[in-house]
Amino acid sequence: MLNFLNFRALAVTVVFGVLAGMASTSIASPIVRIDGSSTVYPITEAVAEDFQIAKRGAIRVTVGISGTGGGFKKFCRDEIDIVNASRPIKPIEMERCKKAGIQFIEMPIAFDALTVTVNPRNTWSDTLTVADLKKIWEPAAQGKITKWNQINPDWPDKDIKLYGPGADSGTFDYFTEAVVGKTKSSRGDFTAAEDDNVLVQGVASDMYALGYFGFAYYIENQKKIRAVAVDNGEGGIIPSAEAVKDATYQPLSRPLFIYVKEKSTEKPEVKEFVNFFMNNGPALVAEVKFFPLPSKAYSMNIEHLNQKKVGTVFLNESEVGITIEEVLSREAHL
C-alpha cells in the first residue's frame, strides 16, 4: 500500500502482537465489514487501525478494495456494513438496495483532487486542457489518438501509454463524467486496475505514460511521478488543498463518502466505529493526504446517524464541480 500505510500497518502489527493474548477469548470479536473504493481505502484503513487499537482488539474491522461499484454490489447483497465510495450512489444501485430491503445513511467524509500524472522525464506536457484530456480518453480516440504529437504537434512522436482505474471504480465514473461528459464513456485500450498502486507504478516506469487517480496516491509518490496542471479555461491549476477549498481545481475536485447500512447501525460495534470515524476523521483524513471537510460536516454525519436519516442528497450519478459549501448545504436538507 502507500508509504504512510506501510508505516501505520507496521505500528499496528506491533501493537496487536502485544494485545493478541488479551483479545483471545472463547467468544469471537464482533466484526465491522467494509469494502469499496481504493481511493477512500487509505482514509478508512487509517481510521480502522486507530479504532482497533483504541478498542484493544475487542472489535475487528476489515477493509477491502473492490472498487466503488464492487463495494455497492456487496452492500446491496447484505454482505458488508459500510461501503467506501468515491462517487455518490447511482440510481441503479439504489434500486438494487431497495429490492433487497436495504436502506443507507450517506456520509461525505473528505474532498479529493483527482490527479492527472505523467512520468518525471516528461518535459513537454506541464498543462493539459480538459479538451486535451477528452481528446485522449473519449471512446472515439481508441486506436486513433495514440501519440503525444496528436495532442500537440510540438510534442514527441511517441505512443501514449495510458493508465486508469477499472470500470468498477468510482474514480473512473467521475473522470469520464467530468472530462468526456458521460459516465463510463471511455476508450478501452488502456491499462486498467482497481489498485491505484498499480497505476502509479505504470506511470513511474514509462517516460511516455499518462494516468489518473486520487491525490493521495500522487502525493505519496511525487518523487516517481509528476502532476499535470489542468486547464478548464482559466489557466492550468495544479491540485492542492488551496485549489480544492477555493474551487479553482475544476472539474476534478470531488467529495468522497462512506455509506452506512441503516440496519447495521443497530449493531453497537458499527455505531461505535462510525462515531469514532466522525470524531477522529478530520485529523486522519489530513494524515493520509486528503482534504478534510469543515468540522460541521462530521457533526452533521453523527446527527444523521443518530436520527437514522436515510437516502441520498445527490440526484445525479456523478456531480462535477461541487464545492464543500454545497455538500454542507445539501446535508442540512436531508
Summarize the structure.
It contains twelve helices and 14 strands. By secondary structure, the chain is α/β, with parallel strands linked by helices. It folds into two domains: 3-111 and 253-331, Periplasmic binding protein-like II (D-Maltodextrin-Binding Protein, domain 2); 115-238, D-Maltodextrin-Binding Protein, domain 2.
Could you describe the 3D structure shown?
By secondary structure, the chain is of the alpha/beta class. The protein folds into 2 domains: 3-111 and 253-331, D-Maltodextrin-Binding Protein, domain 2 (3-Layer(aba) Sandwich), CATH 3.40.190.10; 115-238, D-Maltodextrin-Binding Protein, domain 2 (3-Layer(aba) Sandwich), CATH 3.40.190.10. Helix content is 40%, strand content 19%. The chain is built from 12 helices and 14 strands. It has helices spanning 3-23, 41-54, 67-76, 91-99, 130-137, 170-180, 196-204, 215-219, 241-245, 268-287, 295-307, 324-331, and strands spanning 31-36, 60-63, 82-85, 104-113, 115-118, 127-129, 161-165, 191-193, 209-213, 226-227, 229-231, 236-237, 253-261, 291-292. A 6-stranded mixed beta sheet has the order 2-1-3-13-4-14. A 5-stranded mixed beta sheet has the order 8-7-9-5-10. Strand 7 (161-165), helix 6 and strand 8 (191-193) form a beta-alpha-beta unit. Helix 2 packs across helix 10 (268-287) and helix 3 runs parallel beside helix 4 (91-99). It starts with a helix and ends with a helix. The model is unreliable at 10-26 (pLDDT under 50).
